[in-house]
Amino acid sequence: MNPAESAAPAPYHQLGGYQAVWRIVEAFYRRVETDDILRPLYPENLEPGKQKLAWFFEQWLGGPTSYSDRYGHPRLRRRHFPFVIDERAAGRWLRLMREAWTEAGVPRELQDPIFERLAVLARHMINAHDDVPREPLGDVYLD
Ligand code: HEM
């Protein structure tokens, strides 16, 4: 059956809605702040990206379409082109994200299927070996 038709609540609701997403994102960014591989990739001001990640996770987990309502299609791989992401960076991103979800109190059995999808996405974001445009995409605000 199409998951959209099943009676099971979306992961977004199972884990506790926006408050839970925000706890996860804060725990993740707290780790990024002192990370030797990831910190240099992120801009000096971490706040705007933090909010964007929270909006993205909301919709990616089956909650409100907070990100796309503001920015349109995420085009995630393209948006990451300005940041040279290799296997180590992707691996570190995933590890810090796992720690963040655990710190936020999300039970392991809820995390596991989500991290199967996140691992695929993180691998997809690797672009260090590709000849891609490195200039930022820029935001197109819909509102
Ligand atoms: C694989 C390793 C990854 C690295 C090193 C990485 C790094 C970054 C960096 C440096 C930014 C810019 C932050 C800013 O402008 O403040 C960013 C933005 C973002 N990342 Fe990642 N990222 C990775 C994977 C992912 C994955 C797997 C997802 C989705 C599940 C994701 C979702 C986002 C979103 C939604 C944004 C904001 C995009 C926007 O500007 O609208 N990232 N990431």
From TrEMBL:
Keywords: Heme, Iron, Metal-binding, Transport. InterPro entries: GlbO/GLB3-like, Globin-like_sf, Globin/Proto, Hemoglobin_trunc. Transmembrane segments: none annotated. GO terms for molecular function: heme binding; metal ion binding; oxygen binding; oxygen carrier activity. Signal peptide: none annotated. It comes from the Bacteria. The keyword Methyltransferase does not apply. Pfam families: Bac_globin. PANTHER family: TWO-ON-TWO HEMOGLOBIN-3. Belongs to the truncated hemoglobin family. Group II subfamily. This is Hemoglobin.
